Amino acid sequence: MSVYAIQLLLNAGWSACSFGLRRLDLAFGELILLWLSIVANIAVFAQISATAMILLIPYLAWVTFAGVLNFRLWQMNRVLAERPG
Questions:
Q1: Structural element, H or E, at residue 67
Q2: Interatomic CA distance for residues 40 and 5, integer angstroms
Q3: With contact defined as beta carbons under 8 Å apart, do 10 and 37 qualify?
Q4: What is the DSSP letter of 17?
Q5: Residue 85 has pLDDT above 80, yes or no
Q6: What domain range includes position 39?
Q7: What gap in Å lies between CA 78 and CA 37, rounded to an integer?
Q8: If exposure means fewest CB atoms within 10 Å of the residue's CB, which of 11, 27, 71, 85 is most exposed?
Q9: Number of domains present in the structure of the chain
Q10: Is the pTM of this model over 0.70?
Q11: How many angstroms separate the Cα of 84 from the Cα of each of 25, 73, 77, 79, 80?
Q12: Rounded to an integer, what distance in angstroms lies between the CA atom of residue 71 and that of residue 64?
């Protein structure tokens, strides 16, 4: 359950970094940790229940999609910030 608890904390941390702090760079780093924790959860849950493992796959897909969006927005904001007046 500790792997699951860590994943839940990282999930909340991503929202705080992205929406609360508006720091897409920190949010992306947090999202990488979240993604890795979901993979760890899948590995742990696979030993307990195949159903639990399978139910985590859409969550991993969603976090992967969110990561792509987060990274792209971070890139776009950096480009816009570097533009002259």
A1: helix 50-82
A2: 12
A3: yes
A4: I
A5: no
A6: 2-82
A7: 28
A8: 85
A9: 1
A10: yes
A11: 22, 19, 13, 10, 9
A12: 11
Q: Is residue 44 within 8 Å of 35, Cβ to Cβ?
A: no
DSSP annotation string for 28-63:
HHHHHHHHHHHHHHHHHHHHH-HHHHHHHHHHHHHH
Average pLDDT for 21-41:
94
Q: Is the pLDDT of residue 61 over 90?
A: yes
What letter represents residue 30's amino acid?
A: E
Reference 35, options 9, 72, 10; nearest CA is 10
Are 7 and 37 in contact by the 8 Å Cβ rule? The answer is yes
**pLDDT above 70 coverage of the chain, percent:** 93
DSSP letter at 18 equals I
